[in-house]
Amino acid sequence: MSIDVASPIPLEAFLSVAAMLFCVGVWGLINSRNAVRVLMSIELMLNAVNINLMAFSNYLDGQLIRGQVFAIFVITVAAAEAAVGLAILLSLYRNRETVDMERFNLLRW
Amino acid sequence: MSIASTTQQICFLVLSATTVVGSLGVVLLPSIVYSAFLLGGVFLSVAGLYLLLNASFVAAAQILVYVGAVNVLILFAIMLVNKQETLAAIPGLLVRRLLSGAVCAGLFALLLRVAFTTTWALPGPTPVGEEATIRIGEHLFTDYLLPFELASVLLLMAMIGAIVLARRDVFSTDVITGEPADQGLIEKDRTPLLIEKSAAAPTLLSKP
To answer: In this predicted model, what pLDDT tens digit does every residue of B69-115 receive, in sequence order?
Structure first.
């Protein structure tokens, strides 16, 4: 195995980890019965996107690290999303007295 | 970065294995509390991956915001909605899980194929390394100033929205029936604050 001194880890390795994290997040988002776990899956997907942004920023845009700035904005939006999402979840729990996703079926087709 | 390349590779392998196994645990473990703590572990190892990518500032922000705020918020939500309930069985649940698993595996294969067949413009410019924090500061106050200010407005909106959504003493009427509806269904015996102030308002206790 030839090791490049400048970047010992290939870019594709980071992309693969991010892809795996994203797919696990999508699966959890679809299949979770607990509403809190759905929010956790969304956080996993956001982290996967952030890993992609950071990897591209380091490997392809090393001088103007715009990907890192984007990752900071994504972290900000994720924090806001988590706060509002958990407030909605709390309100839902007070109204329906359950966190089972299968019973939130008012808008079901 | 001044770490030897073999050390970096070992660190990457350990961190990525922790990330993937931890995320699988987050979605698969039956106990939601274990999932929340594993999610904290996933966030920490992602911060380690950021350190490998010469981004110490974003790694610190990741630990502060995700582990310190989001994960704690999720743990509090688990404590607030902690009701042991037996989930009703759904017909075809296993089929649904397998089907969505197949779709996700297909998506994973697609992403891997894109990642490995695209010819990236490597090697790119040399990473700035330790100067990354300075560059981020310059970006945030010059060409990304408007998104930066908008982010502050967004955080304020999210804070106010979360307070309004989660407050307990909101007293409103049901849209369909017109009778007073209470958000605090769990604490029925506790009189809401707004009712105490005005005696003319209908009380919730008289509602069946």
So the answer is: 999 999 999 998 877 777 777 788 889 999 999 999 999 999 999 99
Q: Which two tokens stand for residue B146?
A: 């408007």
Do A78 and B66 make contact, defined as CB atoms within 8 angstroms? yes
**DSSP for residue A100:** B
Q: Which residue has the higher pLDDT, B141 or B1?
A: B141
Cβ under 8 Å to B: A residues 4-63: 5-9, 11-17, 19-28, 30-37, 39-41, 43-44, 47, 50-51, 54-55, 57-63
Long-range CB contacts for residues A68-73, cutoff 8 Å, separation at least 24: A68/B55, A68/B57, A68/B58, A68/B132, A68/B135, A68/B136, A69/B136, A69/B139, A69/B140, A69/B144, A71/B55, A71/B58, A72/B58, A72/B61, A72/B136, A72/B140, A73/B144, A73/B147, A73/B151
CB contact under 8 A, B53 and A58: yes
Q: Which residues are registered as beta bridge partners of B172? A: B181
